[in-house]
Each structure stands twice: as structure tokens, then as C-alpha cells.
Design goal:
This protein has about 200 residues and is mainly β. It has two helices and twelve strands, in the order H-E-E-E-E-E-E-E-E-E-E-H-E-E. The strands form four sheets. The chain has a four-stranded antiparallel beta sheet, with helices on one face. The protein has a three-stranded antiparallel beta sheet with strand order 3-7-6, with no helix packed on it. The chain has a three-stranded antiparallel beta sheet with strand order 4-9-10, with no helix packed on it.
Length: about 200
């Protein structure tokens, strides 16, 4: 009888679905305190586990960008999400724009003039985490209790994340389409070597 129960338990354990450890773990961090009437840089730090990748705002032929729903105190507002430059990943002929290591999505928080004390910043997010074999829709919540006032910002890590953002052109690019030909005019400094250009 005991042997049969043991066999039944082993069968149930074998049939139970494995617990999925998330491929990407998000964390909300601030560069410094929130100055009343000013702005402070926030980062959604996406910590990517080995073998997994996340997606750019334009995910390419497959994938999904991250969606964030903010819950902020009255008078506070956030700007658009600012993504770092992605890398290209081709799987089975499908082009993806991804991040295969840790990355940060930056956003500016606008602080009302009458802010004081500590403000609770809350958000819920959905993102897609993939390996070269499987994709898993992931979701989670992150929170930050941010002090209002002045203080020394954490420049080092945030400067590194800002350097990873796309840099704007000094003047706008132009394009023209005629028949089956697309012509692009992209202003670049004269000392930039253009050997194998790729346009996102």
C-alpha cells in the first residue's frame, strides 16, 4: 500500500508544471530626490537572466514592447519611456530588436511645486521575455517611495544609462520613395565612417 502511494506521489510531481522563474526582473529606481516644481529621472532597470532577452519599443518582426500603467499621486506626471539602442537578433529568419543583457528604460517624473514628504510611486507592467526557444509573457508591479527635496543625485549609473540612449541628429533626416527605390538622406558628421549602414 505504501509503495503504491509513493508511486502515485511521484507521478503527480512529474505531471505538475514547473515553476517559471522570470526571465527579466524589473526594478524602479530614481536618480535622486524629487525637487518640488522640478523633474527627476527614473529608471525601470530590467535585469535580464542569462539566455533571455527583452524587446525594444519597435520589437521587429516578432515580440512586444513593454507596457506600463502608472499610479501616481495627484499633480505628478511622467513623460514617455526612453529606450536604449537595441541589438539585432535573427532567429529562423525573423529579425528582432532586443536586449540580451541588463538595460534601463528611462522616464522623467514631473513634480508639482507643493510636493513634500515622501511620495509613493507605483506601476504595473507587462513585457515579453524570450529565449531562442520559448517566449513568456511576463508581468509585475514595482514601487518606489521617493523623498521630496534636494540631494546629491546618483550620476554614475544614470549617466551610463543615458549614454545608451539614441542620440538625436543635429538636423532631420529625409526620405523619398519613387517606384521601387527608397532614398534616405541622413546628416552625419564628416568623420563618421559609413561602411555597412543599418537604419532602424
Amino acid at each position: 500500500m505504501v509503495g503504491r502511494l509513493l508511486l502515485l506521489l511521484l507521478a503527480l510531481l512529474a505531471a505538475a508544471p514547473a515553476v517559471h522563474a522570470r526571465g527579466i526582473e524589473p526594478q524602479l529606481v530614481a536618480e535622486g530626490p524629487a525637487p518640488p516644481g522640478g523633474e527627476v529621472e527614473l529608471a525601470i532597470h530590467m535585469r535580464t537572466n542569462p539566455g533571455w532577452h527583452g524587446y525594444w519599443l519597435n520589437p521587429g518582426d516578432a515580440g512586444l514592447p513593454m507596457e506600463v500603467e502608472w499610479r501616481l499621486p495627484p499633480g505628478f506626471a511622467v513623460g514617455p519611456l526612453r529606450y536604449p539602442v537595441p541589438t539585432r537578433l535573427t532567429i529562423a529568419g525573423i529579425m528582432n530588436y532586443v536586449y540580451e543583457r541588463d538595460y534601463a528604460v528611462l522616464v522623467r517624473l514631473k513634480v508639482p511645486p507643493d510636493a513634500r514628504g515622501t511620495v509613493p510611486l507605483r506601476a504595473s507592467a507587462r513585457w515579453l521575455a524570450c529565449t531562442d526557444k520559448v517566449c513568456v509573457p511576463e508581468s509585475g508591479s514595482f514601487a518606489l517611495d521617493l523623498a521630496v527635496g534636494s540631494g546629491t543625485p546618483e550620476r554614475g549609473r544614470f549617466d551610463e544609462w543615458r549614454r545608451a540612449l539614441p542620440r538625436p541628429l543635429a538636423s532631420p533626416a529625409r526620405f523619398a520613395l519613387s517606384a521601387d527605390t527608397l532614398r534616405l538622406a541622413i546628416p552625419l558628421p564628416g568623420d563618421v565612417a559609413v561602411e555597412r549602414p543599418y537604419v532602424f
